[in-house]
Amino acid sequence: MDPTVDQALALTGMKDKTPADLVADALAGNAAAWNEIVDRYERLVWSVVRGYRLDNATSSDVAQTVWLELVENLDRIRDPERLPAWLATTARHESLRVAKAQKRMIPSDFEYDTEDTALPAVDASLLQDEEQRDVLRALAHLDDGCQQLLRLLTTDPPLDYDTIADIVGRPKGSIGPTRARCLDKLRRHLGAGERS
One digit per residue, pLDDT tens: the chain, 196 residues? Predict the structure, then answer.
């Protein structure tokens, strides 16, 4: 059989696997399993990292560190079915560590003579869309808990309430009511922005 056909069949089979199956396959050295893990959860990692308002280069470094941590600790994950929660928690811890380190840095008078024009297309489109800017401004007025919860509820691929509850450290039954309160606060901030 053609090797490209074998690879396509291997990749097709990966889409139906559970996180625990992917972890087991990756531990066995299956490259397709590693690729599926990254494909399936890279947006989750990015959504958590970007929530800490790090610049693009730093966000990229933090995301890479999360994946390196996974490579180094894959065999130590106690409950492989909770891989998305492990990734989100690791991304949160690494983002916090880097953000705190940046706050301790002492700024100098040095200025770069070139402008960083490497903004991803997603950021450029967000900046161009006034409605999304208003939502982001209103989101910034919410407490950290609401910001984190709303970001987790809008990840792609979507997370289930069990995973979100694990990440935020709340009972699963409190996610819906908390979500409703956070959305009400967001609406009030959006309404206040329209009146001003």
Answer: 455 544 544 555 788 899 999 999 999 999 999 999 999 999 999 999 988 888 899 999 999 999 999 999 999 999 999 999 999 999 999 999 998 888 776 555 555 555 555 555 554 554 456 777 777 788 888 898 898 888 888 887 888 888 888 888 889 999 999 999 999 998 998 887 655 5
Residue 101's identity, in one-letter code, is A
Overall pTM surpassing 0.90 (yes/no): no
**CB contact at 8 A, 164 and 152:** yes
**106-139 CB burial, b ≥16 within 10 A, e <16:** eeeeeeeeeeeeeeeeeeeeeeeeeeeeebeebb
Q: What DSSP string runs through 42-68?
A: HHHHHHHHHTT---HHHHHHHHHHHHH
Question: What token pair was written down for 33?
Answer: 């399993």
